[in-house]
Amino acid sequence: MLLRCYTLVAGILVATYLVWPYDLRQWPFLAVTLGGVPAVVLALRRAPRGARTPWWLMLTSLALYNIGNIVWIVIATTGGRITGDGTAADLFYTGGGMLLLGASIAVVRHQGRGDVGGVLDSIITAVALGGVLWDAVLLPALTRQDVPASRQLSLFVGVIVIVGTLGAMLRVSLVSPAGRTASIRLFTAGVALTLAGNVAAALAVDADGIRPDWTNMVFLAAYALVGAAAVHPSVALVTQPGRAPNDDLTPGRLTFLGVMLALTPLIGGGRAVLGLPTDGILIALSSAALVPLVMVRVARLAAQRRAAERALHRLATRDGLTGLANRGACLDHLAAALGDGPGDLAVLFCDLDGFKPVNDRLGHAAGDELLIAVADRLRTCVRGDDLVSRFGGDEFVLICRGPDAVDVVAARIADLTARPFTAAGEQVRIGVSVGATRARAADTTDDLINRADLAMYEAKKAKSVGALSLVLA
C-alpha cells in the first residue's frame, strides 16, 4: 500500500512538472526530492543493526542533494544565475554523489561478503567509461559552450562518481541473487537516470548558458525511482549477506579488464588523430590510475584461482572428516615410494577394535569425533616423510621408512591405545589391530596393501579391545 501511494504521488508530480506555472515548479520539485528522505529512513529502520551502513550513507547523500537543490532554487529565483548551475549547489551535489557511491559499494560488500573484486571492478568501470563519456561527449560540448574550468571539474567528478555507482549496482545485479529483486533494479534505474540527467543538462544548454527545464524531469524521475526502491518490500534483501561471488580468472573477465584498460587511450587517441578536441591530461591520469588497478585486480584473480586449485587438490587427496590423506593419495604415495626403491619401506594397516559398539551406542556424531581423535593421535606416531591416511571407514594405513620403522611406529600406536578417548563427553577405550609388512623386490602397491591387510585380519583375531594387536607379514 505504501509503495503504491508513493509511486502514485511521485509519478503524478514528475509527469505534471512542466504543466505547473514556471514560478511554482520548485514546489513539486522539492516534494519529489525531499520525499525520498523518509523513504530511505524507513529502509534504514527495516535493516538489521549490523547492515545499516548503506542506508546511512544514502540518507546523508539525499540530505546533501536536497541542500544543493535548495541552494540551486534560491539562486535561480533571486536574481542569480537563471538555472543555478555552476554555483555552490555543485559542491553539495558532488558530496552527495560520493556518498551515494559509498552506499553502493557498501551494498556490493554486503552482498558479496567483502567483495573487494566487485569494488575494484566498480572503480575500474568508473575511471574507464566515465573518462570515455567525458572525453568523447561532454568535453566537446562544454568546450563549445565556453564553460568555466571550475564548472567542468564539478561535472567531471560528478560523472565519474555516478558511473562508478552504476557499475557497482550492475555488479550486484549480475552476481548476486538480490540483484534480481525489484528494489535493486529500481535503484539501478534511478542511478542510470541520474547519469542521463547529468549528460542531458550538459548537452542541452542553449547559447545563453540556460538549460531547458525538461531536464529536471529526468532528475525527478531518478529521485522517484530511488524512493520507490527504498519503500519496496524487497528492500530487506538489499543488505542481507549474499554468497561470495565466483571470481574466476576467465577469458571473459580478462577481456573486460583489457577493454577497460584500452578504452580511454583508444578513444582519446582516435579523437586526437581526427583533429577533434581531447583531454590529454585525462588520458594520462586515467591510464596512470587504470594500469595499477587492473594489475591489482588480475593479481587478486590469479591468487583466487590458485587458492581454488589448492582447494580442489585438497578435496581430491584429503579425507573430508579427518583431514588425512585419502585412499587415492595413499596409493599414489606408496607407488612413488616404491619407485624410489623398496629398501626399508614398510606399510602398517590399522583397523580399530571396539569402534562399532561406540558408534552404535553414542551415535554417528560421536563416532566421527572418535575417528578425528584417532587420526590426530596417529599423526604423532610417524616421522618426517611418513604418511598417515584414512583408507576407509575405521581403517588407517601408515607408510614409513627405516630399518626400525615398524617397531617404532607400533610402539607409538600401542601408547595411543593405552589412553582413553573422549566421545560425546564419555571416556571410551578402543584397540587397534595392525598388520605390518616390509617391501620386497618386485612388490607392487597391491602386493603391499594386500599383505598388510591379511596380516591385520590375523591380528584382529586376538580381539584385544583397549590394546594393540600386531602381526608382521
From TrEMBL:
Report TM segments. Answer: 5-20, 26-44, 56-79, 91-108, 120-141, 153-174, 186-205, 217-238, 254-274, 280-299
Top-level taxon of the source organism:
Bacteria
Annotated PROSITE patterns: GGDEF
> Which keywords accompany this UniProt record?
Membrane, Transmembrane, Transmembrane helix
What Gene3D superfamilies does the annotation carry?
3.30.70.270
UniProt keyword annotation of Lipid metabolism present: no
Q: Where is the GGDEF domain?
A: 343-473
- Which InterPro entries does the entry link to? DGC-Regulatory_Protein, GGDEF_dom, Nucleotide_cyclase, Rev_trsase/Diguanyl_cyclase
Q: Which Pfam families match?
A: GGDEF (PF00990)
Which ranges of the sequence are coiled-coil? none
Identification of the protein by name: Diguanylate cyclase (GGDEF)-like protein
User: What is the species of this protein?
Assistant: Paractinoplanes abujensis
